[in-house]
Amino acid sequence: MDEVQTIEAAVLSFYRGGSEQQKETHKWLQQVQNSPQAWSFCWELMQLNKSSEIQFFGAITLNSKLRSDWAEVPKEAHHELKQKLLETIVLFGNGPKIVLNRLCISLGLFIVHMLRHPTVIEEVTNMFLHEQLGNLSKVTQIEILMAVLEGIPEEVKNIRTQIPRTVVCEELNRNAEFVMQTVVTYLNEKLSRSAVEPHDMNGLINAAKCTGTWVAHGNVHLNDREGMIQTLLKAIHYCYWKEPKDDGCLMPEENELAETALKSLANIISSYATQNAKYSFTVINYMKLFLDVLVPILDAEYKENNDNENLALMIYALFISTLECFSSAIFAGIVTDSEEVSKVYTRTVDMLIKCTDKPGTYPVDESCSTYAMEFWYMLQEEVLSMDSGEHKKRCLEAIKPVYAHVVKVLVRKSQLPTESSLHKWNDDDLEAFRCYRQDIGDTLLSCHDVLNDLMLDVLSEALDESIMYLSYDPQSTESWTLLEATIHAFCSIAQKIEYTEHQQIVKLLKVLNEIPYEKYSDKLFGMALETVGAYSEWIGDNPKYLPSAITLLVKGLNSTKASQATLGLKDLTSECQKEVIPYALPLLDACRTALQEGHLKNAEMIRLMYTVGNILSVISYENIILYLDAMVSPCFEELQVHVQNNDRTEPTKARVVLRLEMISKLFSSLNIRKPTEGDMDKGLVVGVGPHKLPFPAGGTPAPGAPVQPILLILEKTMGLLKSLCTLWIHDETVIDTLCKALQQALTNLMDDIKPLLTEMCCLVLSILNTNCVVSAADIAGNFILMFYKDQDCRQLMVQLFTAIMDYNFNQMELNVGKLSRIADLIETFYAFNTRISKKIPICYSEVQIDCMKLVDYATKCMMLPETGPMKKSVAFITMFVKESTNHPVMMNVILAQGENIVRSTFLCIGGTALRTQVEIFADIFLALNFRYPAEFIQWMKLLEVPNFPTAYVSATDKEQFMRKIIKERVNKRLVQDHVRKFAALCRNIVEYENK
Q1: Pairing assessment for the beta strands 684-685 and 695-696 based on DSSP bridges
Q2: Which residues of the chain carry a pLDDT beneath 50?
């Protein structure tokens, strides 16, 4: 008794104490729940004279024991346990609800454990149907029965049962029709009356849920589900049309029943999705039923701020789900001789056009219109994937008018909120609308795939209408939203517009330059700037429109929309690099002015340096030097001041990082020897602009060729960079940013970096020996891959390689048992070693490093819960194994570590790795089986160890798995399939297959 009182006190302390106290109490209560004594005290806690918190703890304890510790219940105690359960359900039949719900789950768990008894479900069902549970009312008994039945299939997924999973599945299938018949009979009986009593609603809701959870079982054809579907539709119809609502809003119970019925309908349809062709006629029939019963509800709710929005949402979701599962059956109605199929298709399209055009603004006035987006993608995908021919042509012509109409609707729906309406919006609404506009942009791309050039005509008409709307009331400052939405539509399809000089685009660019932006919201100007950037590639093919684009973007640099302007200039100078030469110097002056004035945000300054690099790459060498001095020197001068002042304050750190990021961006785009596509094909690198410098790719520049500007910068500033590195060596952010800048320089310079290679490697070495950030390992890896085979650089590369290995081994030794702490470092380390294994595996033979330790740590790291280290470790082991047979040092490591690799792989498959990730381990099996077939057979015999990798998988299953894996040396897909199924067995999971 004392123990029960202690538990009760702990429960009350948990619910009513502080967070720290709760943490400790929760841990103790979990231990109590896991103890065998819990089978006894849980009943004592579930007494009517206890508080609801204590009763609830007793109920969840019983749940936990039934779910995980059934083996503790002796067979002879099963009947007593059942009786106690039923008695307690009677005790709590009238509440509290929270306790009763848990008891219903517990009875469902008990039934699952007892499924070896073929009549257990029928017995329990009849007991409730025939009112054999004490003094509980018939209504309450039915409500409880439906809750119990509904939970049984769900509990099977999580329960630990002594019955084999295949037997459980068979029993569920055998009992499914009995359960369904019971449920549907009950629903029909109640719904056939003129009015449903309020006290019956919970039972009806549970019954509707039951149809959705049991539908995956029973091996019943979809066409045999018509009675159930009609019953669920009857429930929705009853709830909505039962009686006029004073405020138009359904009562909570009616709303829940209707929504539950809709969810179950969606479950029924999706359960048969894999048999699309088999049920074409049936689905058309069901779709007609849905349209007849549900569209009138949608029509009644076709208004802003309707009170049953969520119900409308779920109706649309049902239609979309049905279309996703059976699209070909319904889309057959685009052009068909069948009037019935054609009508279903036409009514569906009309309904989803109305959904797209739902009155109001998403998401503050309506939330349905986003649901139809998926349909417009599905429809165009269905038609465009047809085999070319007359049928496809007819279908395409049939849907074009629909898509032209949808484009106009989408433009209208994508209008931004005006300043006067923003009071209705919160931050979540604004973010939802941003995502909605992105969805509209994606849908417009689908529309373009159908309409092609006709799309530009539709948008051009919309542009005329929006300008006309703007002119209706010239004094209005809020009439800009339609024009902005139209420009957004043009922007969304920019990637689809080919090089032709489309007059609609010419008109658009003209309009963008003529709008008096100062009269309207700056959002209109921002959209214009974004659109000019989006059409950079088209402008590159039509360069006579370049000046007006530059003018607009430069104007944007000095506005509140400088972010869009810098993005647009980045795109424009990348796509039109040659064409920008005549305007290069004024554009550089504009960039310099913007940088000097100080109104740009950090991200805008960094981005603008990319544009500067693009422009510098195409002007004369003399001008490059002049502008470098004017635009880049301020960055290094500021860094020099910070170094001289030995300043490591937070504000200084922010400035240092900014300047380094600006330099990094410049390094990424400044290259006077950028290759063209044709030159790449020939293996040549040719400069763009006045200095054409042909020389072999990756080779040495022609004699007398100008020095790459980046190299000039580095030569002058290497001392400063070293000092900066010394000052900030223990700050990961600064060092990481510095390394990324050097990486950008290396990427552009390639072999040109050789004059500074020693100094740069020494700088990187100093970082590796102190603070091996990810980007330091990356640049060191690139140096090694580029220059390891160069005898002049070999010693330096060996030093880099050794430094990386020593630092990472040291960090892993310091964090043994808690490797997750350095997950990012491990991911980078094994990504680096995978590249080395693939490109220059000779490193492992020529450099004195412990390869045994390298592979041993990889087997530990692939068992980490973090996906990155796990995947990179598996990739490394796989590549190391593949390359090892050509290098004795590597081969000896695999021969010594092979069994350890296989053991760790089995543990990952058995439970350490996420089940969704297990297929990756097939790569290790394939590599070992291909390179070491005889040894692999011996290593696989680890499976003969009892209860390895888990107790759930039988010796027979393990033997079959071994045979299948050993047999396959090449077929990756098949080995992945074997691994996935074996992982399910190891975890005691049944892979249910749809009918």
Answers
A1: antiparallel
A2: 1, 676-700, 992-995
